[in-house]
Design a protein that fits this description.
- This is DUF927 domain-containing protein.
- It comes from Paenibacillus naphthalenovorans.
- The chain has 25 helices and 24 strands.
- The chain is α/β, with parallel strands linked by helices.
- The chain has 4 domains: 82 residues, no CATH class; 129 residues, no CATH class; 259 residues, 3-Layer(aba) Sandwich (Rossmann fold), CATH 3.40.50.300; 112 residues, no CATH class.
- The strands form 6 sheets. Strands 6-5-4-7-12 form a 5-stranded mixed sheet. Strands 14-15-18-13-19 form a 5-stranded parallel sheet. It has a 5-stranded antiparallel sheet with strand order 20-21-24-23-22.
- The protein starts with 15 loop residues before the first helix and ends in a 43-residue tail after the last helix.
Length: 706
């Protein structure tokens, strides 16, 4: 067997045969002339040759060392040899010999990908485990077993998103090679290494963990540059800049090819979902039988937006890249028995999503779930605000706002902070929706399902449901992803989102964020049209039907918002006396009512009608100021704008052209009352003073902004 530490650099005078000849000659002379034995054996040339023999041929070194100790039974000789051994070992470690043994030479059973890796200096690996060389003061070299099974560093990876290094460890146990992947910081920390690796069966315990860390560090250094460059991702879903789809069973390119050798590998820290694409031979027939029937599972204005949202979610990372990382939330609400959960569960199955509807849980559990991937929707069922604790409801809605723009959420951990990117598309189902939370409503596509439709069309709905469920939905999901690959490969994506954007522009006076949500929805509807074309199926809807379905979601999303603002404005007008004349005024010429944001916020907060923080209010206004405002859908044309006016900063601006409909107060009530005397106070020339209001509103003076 080769020496466990047979490493060093090449020297002609240190050839094994030459060393043995020189050492044997010296020992023979010492035996013949014992008076000169001390001088002969303590000479630097002899000690250096004997030390090098340990490097070249350890068994010969042991035999000659014993022979020398018989001639000089003194501890001084062993000390001198030990010192020389330390020097020689340092020299040998400083160079790399082309004859350093590799794992392929030392092991009988090994994976091919590790055959080229070499031993670190001072260590030996065999089928019996890992051994460490040790030289004591007296020059005795012994080999201590470190691990009971072979253990190696088989790969060094770098995180694709965060650049964090990881080590792949392999060990032989249960008649096969096992793999574990750890963060490099954990692998080289003996406490964390023992905690993590030992639980997975690695030959590490409290007695050897410190030495194992030294060994792993030496192994990594000895093979620097020999590991293939690999980048790791820990999330399922798309890498949009590379157009690669990460799944539990491998990596797919945009053309649907399964990549067996990619520089990207999937290494989840903790895999929460198992998403895999299974190729089925009958996917075309199954997809033809399933996808056209989806529209009939519920009312057309319900099913088409839901289908469109799910289709768009399959390319959600590409959509986010188009507009500031934004992807809308899907809200399905309605009375019990309206088919909410059934519709969503079917959509999950035909898109290959293994997630099941979940209940709203703790903040940490929500953070982990919403950061698990960037493509497969996470569904929350049983949204019932009246039955939820206020803190739980607040945490849930805050997480949804973070998900809209794939923002980060931080959680404390021992020794630092763990950052999560909440990038999952989100669906939540309930008998209500957060109609009083303007921030959530603006970020959502709201679909209301009616139980009456199910009751009136029960026979058809039951028949469609049975027909869909009688098919192999796994094969349908295979067809869905084959279409997604085809869709992206053919470049339809840019064309469709441009068409959807132009179509959304035809919706007048809607908030720019709602307009983007509508663009996403129309893109998904167009994708649904394309899969029907892809399957050579009849398409039962066109552009007008798509617009009508989109208008339905806008009406459901904004109806309560509009009426809420009506109520707040009406109450604000009646309670005007708590505000000074600098807080509210009327521009008669342009029929605009101006209110300072601080006073308006103070009023609505005091009356518990509209919950918002000052920071959130300012952010919303700043984010939306260029859009021209958001407008309620329907016959009423009353709308809200956001602008910057004067040194008082942010202000709400209410259009009073339809003020009578919004507040019940006639427009004449806002105009000067000629029957009443004008105010005695004369305003500056650049300002106009509004006279006292009617008896119902009690003398309120308003200034017109310059």
């Amino acid at each position: 067997m080769r020496s466990p530490i047979a490493f060093g650099y090449e020297r002609e005078d240190m050839d094994k045969e030459a060393l043995l000849e020189r050492l044997s000659t010296t020992l023979s002379n010492a035996e013949q002339n014992k008076e000169q034995a001390i001088q002969l054996l303590f000479r630097a040339e002899f000690l250096e040759a004997l030390a090098w023999l340990q490097i070249v041929s350890y068994p010969d070194f042991v035999a000659l060392k014993k022979q020398a100790e018989k001639l000089i039974p003194s501890s001084e000789f062993r000390k001198a040899l030990a010192q020389k051994l330390q020097v020689i070992n340092r020299e040998a470690q400083a160079f790399t010999n082309k004859d350093i043994p590799t794992l392929g030479e030392a092991l009988e059973d090994y994976p091919q990908e590790i055959a080229h890796l070499q031993f670190p200096f001072g260590w030996w690996i065999s089928k019996d485990g890992v051994f460490r060389s040790h030289t004591d003061r007296m020059g005795n070299v012994e080999y201590v077993k470190l691990c009971s099974w072979p253990l190696i560093v088989s790969g060094v990876y770098r995180g694709y998103q965060d650049g964090e290094m990881k080590l792949e460890l392999m060990f032989h146990r249960w008649e096969d090679w096992q793999k574990i992947v750890l963060n490099r910081s954990d692998a080289l920390n003996y406490k964390k290494l023992q905690e993590i690796a030992a639980a997975k069966g690695a030959p590490i315990d409290s007695s050897n963990s410190k030495d194992v860390v030294r060994y792993l560090s030496a192994f990594e250094a000895a093979n620097d540059g020999k590991y293939p460059l690999k980048r790791t991702v820990d999330k399922i879903g798309w890498i949009p800049e590379r157009k690669l789809l990460i799944t539990s069973n491998g990596i797919y390119s945009v053309n649907g090819e399964h990549l067996n050798d990619s520089d990207i590998i999937y290494q989840p820290g903790k895999e929460l979902i198992q998403f895999s694409i299974k190729q089925c031979d009958n996917w075309q027939e199954t997809a033809k039988a399933v996808f056209p029937q989806l529209l009939n599972l519920n009312h057309f204005n319900v099913t088409l937006p839901v289908i469109g949202w799910f289709f768009a979610s399959a390319v959600a990372p590409f959509i986010r890249a188009k507009r500031d990382n934004q992807y809308p939330i899907l809200v399905c609400w309605g009375k019990s028995g309206s088919g909410k959960t059934t519709l969503i569960e079917i959509m999950l199955k035909i898109t290959g999503n293994p997630n099941e509807p979940q209940k709203i849980s703790t903040p940490y559990a929500l953070t982990v779930q919403l950061s698990s991937n960037n493509t497969l929707p996470v569904v929350f069922d049983e949204y019932k605000p009246s039955e939820m604790a206020e803190r739980t409801l607040s945490d849930f809605l805050n997480k949804l706002k973070l998900c809209y723009r794939a923002d980060s959420d931080s959680r404390g951990k021992p020794g630092g902070v763990q950052t999560y990117t909440l990038s999952c598309p989100v669906v939540f189902i309930g008998e209500d929706y957060p109609k009083d939370n303007q921030a959530i409503v603006e970020r959502s596509i709201v679909v209301q399902l009616e139980r009456n439709w199910i009751e009136q069309n029960k026979v058809m709905a039951d028949s469609v449901f049975k027909n869909v469920m009688s098919n192999d939905l796994e094969a349908a999901s295979s067809g869905f992803w084959n279409f997604i690959f085809h869709y992206l490969e053919q470049g339809f994506w840019d064309e469709d989102i441009e068409e959807a954007s132009q179509l959304a522009e035809t919706f007048e006076n809607i908030h720019f964020r709602v307009r983007w949500n509508t663009t996403v929805l129309l893109t998904g509807m167009r994708m649904y049209q394309r899969i029907l074309e892809f399957l050579n199926c009849e398409i039962a809807f066109g552009v007008e039907e798509m617009k009508r379905a989109a208008v339905y979601t806008l009406s459901a999303a904004m109806e309560d918002q509009e009426s809420m603002l009506d109520r707040i404005l009406l109450a604000f007008n009646y309670d005007h006396r708590q505000f000074s004349e600098s807080d509210i005024w009327l521009d008669q010429e342009n029929h605009l009512l101006y209110v300072t944001a601080s006073k308006f916020k103070a009023y609505v907060t005091m009356n518990n009608q509209f919950k918002c923080s000052a920071a959130q209010l300012k952010y919303e206004m700043e984010y939306c100021c260029h859009s021209g405002g958001y407008v309620g859908n329907g016959k009423r044309e009353y709308y809200v704008q956001k602008k910057i006016r004067g040194r008082n900063g942010w202000r709400y601006v209410f259009n009073t052209l339809k003020l009578e409909e919004a507040t019940g107060i006639s427009e004449e009530a806002w105009l000067p009352n000629e029957s009443e005397p004008p105010d005695e106070v004369t305003p500056p020339p650049e300002r106009r003073v509004h006279p006292e209001r009617s008896a119902r509103l009690k003398s309120l003076s308003r200034k017109t902004p310059s």
